[in-house]
Queue: 4 jobs
Job 1
Amino acid sequence: MSELNAPHPLSAYGWDAGFADGFTPYAAEGLVPGRIVRVDRGRCDVVVADGEAGVRHVMADTSLVTTGDPLNIMCTGDWAAVDLSGGHVRALLPRRTAFVRSTSSKRSEGQVLAANVDHAVVAVSLAVELDLGRIERFLTLAWESGAAPLVVLTKADLVPDPATLAHLVADTETAAPGVTVLAVSAETGDGIDVLAAVLSGGASVLLGQSGAGKSTLANALVGGEVQTVQTTRDRDGKGRHTTTTRNLLPLPGGGVLIDTPGLRGVGLWDAEGGVGRTFAEIEALAADCRFQDCGHGGEPGCAVLAALEDGTLQPRRLDSYRKLLRENEWIASRTDARLRAEIRRDWKRKQAEGRAAMARKRGVS
């Protein structure tokens, strides 16, 4: 293959013509592209092209792109314009996708967990009872991110009866319409090759609670002990935080995997569209309601309630749908209130500055 036709050294990390076009003005400044592998206290690990060697990792300072906006802060998966001579990240390329959750702070801020991913892999342990509501919550954020969600039921070796395993997969599928559900075991290797084929060549983020087996799954996909593994607690199946930072790992078949710490809280953040995708069958039913603004609470001609009565729609699904919609509306209202408060504070500050300026002017005159 000629050099002109040779793939870019960063192609395996997701670099393509679209990112190259967006990088053009930075290339003119002598900067080089790099993908953020890990962010840690004002510095980040970036993978960049390195001529015949392929790629190499460099540590770069992030102070020039540090922002007070939590939604625009650098995160694992970002593509960056790097000044190798100065050791700084100078700019971040626009994100194609971003997995965002609400923080637990009283300011109702969003937190970006991973950027520029094609697949959002929701890991769910079969060592404990399935929590379909939590799966729906993860899927809502995954759909909202712009990535394609995938549910992976881990530790399938703990369910030796094929009929029981098939039942668990079917139950999960009811909570994940239009989403692939795979049962895998990193212990026996069952299903790992299928999952690896799905993720090959793209960028994926691995999500789930502590104890879901994410680190073990990451090791199985990468083909080595790249992530430390800890056992779960016997009494409740929960695990300790094995992964404490978000790490981007290259996959043997091409593409990358971003492993994340276990998520205790998965709050929605501006996820109305994600709710609609997760509960696609309810949205489809609602389109046939007599009234366009039907609240599905007793209105005549409600197609959603009719589906409940004939058993087409399960009550649990409708309850979960309503719960996530209410939560999303509440977060949106708190965010709007915060923005209004910031506008008021800014207005009062400008007023105070204006009064101070007038006082100084009177003093001079």
Note: The chain has a mean pLDDT of 85.
Job 2
Amino acid sequence: MPGLPTKFNFWQRLKIARRSLLFVVGYCLVLSTTLLSCNASSNNTQQQAAAPINAAKQVVRIVRSKQLSALAVLEKQGNLEKRLEPLGFKVEWPEFAAGPQQLEALNANGLDIASTAESPPIFAQAAGTPLVYLATTSFSGKAVSLLVPTNSPVKAIADLKGKKVAFQKASIGHYLLVKALESVGLKLSDVQSVFLQPPDANVAFSQGKVDGWFIWEPFVTRAEQKKVGRVLVDGGNLRDTGNFYSTTKQFYQAHPDVIKAFLEELEKADLWTKEHREEVAKLLAPVTQLDVPTLEIMHSKYDYGLRPITEQVIAKQQEVADKWYSLGQIPKKVNVRDGFLTPEEYAKITPSDVLAKK
């Protein structure tokens, strides 16, 4: 009997040891499962957090061009999309009837980069749009023309006195009509101005409801091919300004890297367009709805390549603004310089070969 407690203690200790071992094993299993679960949860959380960054790219909206332009080529080639992808941007190309509609959208945050003639930005500045002029272009005056019906008795600009002339208000057609009339001693008030957007003006002109139409390509060539209109005068000797690419101050301040990439790729497209007449024609035939041979002929109407913003460019733009104010077409005097950057700021976003053209 004296040995019983010893045996009892031994078995009791063994049971306790087994229970402890089971507890430790169970605890370890629970701990491992918890850690794995936490780790998996953490990974899922990280993946969920990363997914929106990868999926939700920012968008830059650049106006679609239906002219025989480098901007149209840039869209078709897709090089800008490749350039902006590492920056987290994708490109959308919304379409607008003309420059004034673009700048209305720019002001309403429906567009990020516009391409217009000289006058739309001035009218926009007069309306309070906080725009920034990014770059300018050559004149390409021959790509804008004053059309009259094929059988019209009008033979010279002076013959338009008292007649109805259609154009998009605040457009290059509006500006060149003023200059054309002034060249023969007439004023804008000497004709009946009919403000119509290009698609509506096209219908009115085709139906003989107006006596003239100041418009750009490809409307001019289409009218000639359909034998509904002929060119009375083109802008070759009238135009003294280039087009402008513009954006809002907010977009410029937030994304100068995007703007720099855009201008660099645009200049490349400009140079390629200049040297590849046949390829450009094939590329843009579906866009312009004109055949390749016709587009090749039209190619000579355009001057290609960006131009830097200089003091001469700013001074000329101010001259145009003052003209519109003197004609009562804008409600207040505009200081166009409010929309221009400093030379140092332009140097940071303008392609080096464009800056070299100064």
Note: Residues 4-55 form the longest helix (52 residues).
Job 3
Amino acid sequence: MSNADLLRQAISQRAELLAAAQAANTNCYRVFHGTVEGIDGLTIDRYGDAWLIQSFHQSLTQEEQESLAQELKQTQDLPVIYNDRSNKNSRILNPLTPELDAFASAEQEMTENGIRFISKLRHEGQDPLLFLDMRVGREYVKANSQGKSVLNLFSYTCGIGTAAAVGGAESVTNVDFSSFALAAGRRNAELNGVSDRCEFIQSDAFPAMRQLAGMKVGGRRNQRLPCYPKLAKRQFDLVFLDPPRFAKSPFGTVDLINDYQSLFKPAMLATKAGGTIVCCNNVAKVERQVWLDALIRCVEKQGRQVASFEWIHCHQDFPSFDGNHPLKIVALTLAEQ
């Protein structure tokens, strides 16, 4: 089958999902998940008033781009942006026409379940400012934040924090190292009229979490610690932990395969008794039950107990081969002490 045929088939299989999205005032979702649907490394998404095609393994030919664009426009006649990210560092390689480049570089607005978010299809970073597979996470916090204090770690553009505030959170604390991401988060809060309940802390996550948990701030061996915002010890009703796969800083190493506990422990200690910590792991080869067991052991080593847990599954616009999506999300509710 051609690329256009595979795309047509994928859109047809999403008919029910797309109708539900329209009814829920959602205009951002995935229409082609190539890893599962026939073209490894190719993704096609709706971001508000635009289609975004991205190739991560192999560049598309001009003919392939045109055939996909034609198919997309038959579904909804919107501008089509192609980002070729097949280089090793995933940076965008291909130029656009001046008109499309201006459109892709401008701030756009989209809605997800009635919540307004900004997007930019091309900017100083790499991704369009909202990860669409995390829609289910935003739905969870919106539904479970009424009257609660929420801590959003590795917040990126604060989609989780914005959803929590829209869902009635009493206060939301967003923590991220990127000033650019937090600026986008502030815009998201402004668009939804929830700025008064949202706090934005630019900080490495390690010192932020450790201070909130009442732990000493340390660092990697022989690393001089840079300045960081000073925070008082505090616990939250709901903590959301969504770290990248791997990153290093003077304060520690983020490693979702070998050392999730170094992130989870302080985040869990910053969670109130009876509160909930939502943990995310996007590494496909991490087996979910093994990961869950390790989280529960970590809780118990700190003299606490998990009262219950709930797996949160990605929506069907992000299909998987066997029903076990690479993105694993589990909500652990801690026992009252």
Note: The first strand starts at residue 28 and ends at 33.
Job 4
Amino acid sequence: METVLRPAIVAGGAVVLTLLVGWATDLLLRKADDRHGDTPLWDLLRRARVPYQLVLCAALLRGSYDEAELFPEHRTGVGRTLTLVLIGAAAWLVIRIAAAIVETTYTRYARAHHDPARVRRVRTQVTLIMRVVSAIVGVVAVAAMLLTFPAMRAAGASLLASAGVLGIVAGVAAQSTLSNMFAGLQIAFGDMVRIGDTVVVDGEWGTVEEITLTFLTVRTWDERRITMPVSYFTSRPFENWSRGTPQMTGIVYWHLDHSAPVEAMREKLRDILRACPAWDGRAYGLQVTDSTPNTIQVRALVTAKDADDIWTVRVTVREQMITWLVAEHPYALPRVNTADAVLPPHQAPSPDGTSFRRAYEFPRGRG
């Protein structure tokens, strides 16, 4: 009877004690969250209650396993399993606590600073820091798990002896990966590109959605995702429209007939912009920038507070100006000229057209 009751009491007591301690801890965190509603730390710490209870339960079972005398013939295997669970749960708990602290720090910084560029920069750094911390904790946890096996401890000396050769081989084999990792850290703390920045890479316009230690994801305007190695942004030029101030100047082109009413177009541009909410009112202008034998090129300059608004202003100006030209000045639209050529005064055509024909006749040879 004792062989049955003792394991049941030890295992059941560990589980019950874990649940009670977990419930009490969660209750204290809930009260702290209600009392300090200005910080999300306590609510974020509540998300760690599962690894916390798992660590507590694994520790209690591992410490009392010898007294429980449960499966004595498999004592070594069960004890090592509980140790592995304890190490894994402890790593999970450390990552959750670190994430809660880092997220709380970022939230306080975002509330205290109203500069979107600085907030995006800190957000990028925080994201990469958490990935580095998670990677380090994961590597340490795996190493600790491996060292629980005697065979791995015995092989440690030979592994350390060949570490130099293995390091060289791994460095050559993982050269691309390591370069991307260092590029990710350079991006995080070099402030070249941040999460939420509007960029143009390889002719694609989009917003930086995710930055990791090895790759970066850009969400384009048509909801596509472009994944690129972070080393691209440290080795090649790219456009960052969110760098510095987000204000932008946009250009709209029209190809029109030489008779287009340019002055009237300037007045119409002013009316269109005054009715466009996306225009920031800083500046505008309209000039003839080029001409060809058949058309002229008219360029309008408009301004807006960011990349999204400048797109709206450009398409609005282009559409409404063309609509106005079609309705009010259709002669200003480009067309193919089919009228007779105007000759110089000394070759003016006679009423019967003789001089016109002579001007375009080639001399004929005799015979």
Note: The chain is about 60% helix and 15% strand.
